[in-house]
Design a protein that fits this description.
Number of strands: 26
Largest sheet: 8 strands, parallel
Shape: globular
């Protein structure tokens, strides 16, 4: 159906995409043919691309989002698994319902891990075979079709994965490729207050992969990169990163950061803790582009879900500003697959609306969990089809209104706290004012905000419009702003010039919808009319591969080099041997600390703390009991024996020693005693 002119446009667009290194953003609401082609061709979705294109993620469980048309059979409970087992959701079903997600204004989707799982792993976090996709969700072709369709609608897809462990449902010999105990840490009691246990013991009884083994680490990183490029994923979310070695995270980030946003799950309550997994200040190393902002989620759920003081949110935001290097790449959320639904905690929908409003306007990458748009009160992993897909639901439309304005840029700029009380939290993004409270349904107040607490553009007589109600009835007075909070509802106030009236065409911000499941393209010329399917077909005819993927990664054999011996090649390690001190001295490097140990009869091991200001930073030990992994902290420790084996190398792991990044040279020099 393509004319010579249209095919020529396609070729020119392909060359343009390549010359742009595929870093393109599409802001047009009516996609011309060339723009759609650019959208499909572009592969690189870096941190900057995600932030600058105002991406907001809709998180879903593939198995629980929607049933495939013509196969509407709910199979929950048929396999007698805890949590219901597989219920019937598929990639094809999701492909058929992308318009439902796009209709809310979302431009990114986070799907469940796609690898083959064991019998009850409907959630995707019990991997069985890294070489196969989960056939409960569909085939590789189905996954490719989903991602192609999504890209045609400017929906980016986040790949979720777990590299920390394998499934515990089957014997190790049935797992692939890690089918032997040699690839795993020995099981030990999990203690979340002990960093060594967190990194090495089995999380919830799941066999913990030993990513200190070079062959294991290399396979995991190669596999992740291969999957991203093979299927064309735009983002990479990694589960349980606190349970993995930071060196693995760093190498993975290095491999993916030029093409894909990386987000790590950090189930931690403090800002300092999550910050250290995004960026390591001591070594000036990026470990992930972003991490999940659990500290803020906890405070928001306390303030809005339990009506605790909003000063808690204020305090946490101050901590995040202080500790986090890149707030804009943090993942914001109030609900997830690991937390009890907000509306299960308490039934007040207005409080839920306030919390949702807070994150949709805030600095970061918001994530909305499936069912939130329907004010779902069911279990966190319940099938959405049991609730329905009402596109007239209040929160469906409320999310659409917020995302319409977010994508238009009214929430750009620094987030500035404007006014806080126990029950009230107001912040601004440029000239937009976000007003939230925990009064709850049936309660109202009319606080007066002094002029000095308002954006400077708010001059006397300025008219403000409420994004959530379409009412332009708020005026700045001479001394400040009177805000009318009715029925406990939030307000999002923008200046008249920034206000976008409520209408499906404005809100969706893409192509006008027609009858059927997907939008129709505008005519490319007087003689050419094409649909997204036509362009997918054209791309298949002249497919442009993502570079040279080569062969799928394989796990190198450990038979030729015992893993323990390989690990012990470098006799220093990032660890601290707590207790067992003989005495403390001052040293300038790990080598000098080891030398001090050799001159002390009672010393068998040493721990050197890389903090030059410490008076005693070299501790001589009579044993290495109490070993704690200390890589990546603000006061990392390098420990080792009194004398290194003859066949070892004095220093730490080569993957660290041989880095040439300028930011690390001072640290590396200290390790070498230079």
């Amino acid at each position: 159906p393509f004319s010579r002119e249209l095919r020529s446009m396609y070729i020119q667009t392909r060359l343009l995409a390549l010359s742009m290194d595929c870093r393109c953003r599409v802001r047009s609401r009516i996609f011309p043919v060339a723009v759609l082609l650019l959208l499909v061709l572009c592969e690189a979705k870096t941190r900057d691309e995600w932030v600058q294109s105002h991406r907001v993620i809709y998180q879903l469980l593939t198995d629980r989002f929607t049933l495939e048309r013509g196969k509407e059979q709910d199979t929950c409970g048929s396999d007698k698994c805890e949590g219901g087992g597989y219920c019937g959701g598929t990639w094809t079903g999701l492909t058929e319902h992308l318009d439902y997600i796009k209709g809310m204004g979302f431009n990114a989707i986070w799907i469940s891990p796609h690898v083959q799982n064991t019998k009850c792993g409907f959630h995707g976090f019990w991997p069985k075979n890294f070489d196969e996709v989960n056939d409960h969700f569909g085939t590789e072709a189905d996954l490719h079709a989903l991602i192609k369709r999504a890209h045609g609608l400017d929906l980016w897809i986040v790949m979720d994965t777990v590299l920390n462990h394998m499934s515990m449902e089957e014997p190790l010999e049935n797992l692939w490729p890690f089918n032997d105990t040699i690839y795993y840490h020995k099981d030990c009691p999990m203690d979340y207050n002990d960093q060594y246990a967190v990194r090495n013991c089995w999380l919830m009884g799941l066999p913990d992969l030993d990513d200190d083994i070079p062959q294991v680490r290399k396979y995991l990183i190669d596999w992740a990169e291969y999957q991203v490029h093979k299927f064309g994923f735009d983002g990479y979310r990694m589960d349980a990163i606190a349970h993995m070695q930071p060196e693995t995270l760093y190498e993975l980030w290095e491999r993916l950061s030029n093409t894909t946003l990386t987000i790590g799950e950090t189930f931690m309550a403090s800002a300092q803790s999550i910050a250290s997994y995004q960026f390591n200040r001591l070594q000036q190393r990026q470990l992930m582009d972003g991490v999940t902002n659990y500290p803020l989620a906890i405070q928001l759920r306390l303030a809005f879900g339990e009506k605790k003081t909003l000063y808690g949110v204020q305090w946490m935001w101050e901590q995040l500003i202080k500790e986090v290097s890149d707030l804009s790449a943090l993942a914001l959320f109030i609900d997830s697959h690991d937390l009890q639904r907000f509306l299960n905690l308490q039934p007040d929908v207005t409080l839920f609306t306030n919390a949702l409003t807070w994150i949709l306007g805030a600095d970061g990458i918001p994530i909305v969990y499936y069912g939130s748009e329907q004010a779902a009160t069911f279990d966190i992993r319940e099938p959405l089809w049991r609730k329905g897909y009402d596109q007239e639901a209040f929160h469906y439309k409320m999310i659409r209104r917020m995302l319409t304005h977010r994508k238009a840029g009214v929430f750009d700029g620094p987030q500035q706290e404007r006014y806080v009380e126990d029950w009230l939290y107001i912040y601004s993004r440029n000239n937009t004012l976000v007003v939230t409270s925990n009064l709850g349904s049936g309660h109202g107040r009319q606080p007066f905000i002094p002029k000095e607490n308002l954006p400077t553009a708010y001059t006397t007589g300025t008219i403000l419009c409420n994004v959530l109600t379409d009412a332009c009835d708020t005026m700045v007075q001479e001394g400040g702003l009177k805000i009318v909070i009715g029925e406990g509802k939030p307000l999002v106030l923008v200046m008249e010039g920034d206000f976008i009236p409520d209408s499906p065409a404005n809100d969706i911000g893409w192509l006008p919808t027609t009858t059927g499941d997907y939008p129709a393209l505008q005519k490319a010329s007087t003689e050419d009319t094409a649909s997204p399917d036509d362009f997918v077909k054209l791309l298949e005819e002249e497919r442009i591969p993502y570079g040279d993927l080569g062969k799928p990664p394989t796990l190198a054999s450990l038979a030729d080099a015992d893993s323990a011996a390989d690990l012990n090649k470098y006799c220093f390690e990032y660890a601290d041997y707590l207790g067992n001190d003989v005495r403390g001295v001052t040293a300038t490097s790990p080598d000098e600390c080891q030398s001090e140990c050799q001159h002390e009869n009672m010393c068998e091991y040493f721990s050197f703390i890389f903090v030059p200001s410490l008076h005693r930073n070299c501790w001589l030990k009579n044993s290495k009991e109490g070993r704690v992994q200390m890589w990546g902290g603000e006061s990392a420790s390098i420990s080792g024996p009194k004398t290194c084996p003859a066949d070892s190398v004095v220093g730490v792991r080569a993957s660290i020693e041989e880095r040439e990044q300028s930011a690390e040279r001072g640290y590396t020099a200290a390790l070498r005693g230079q």
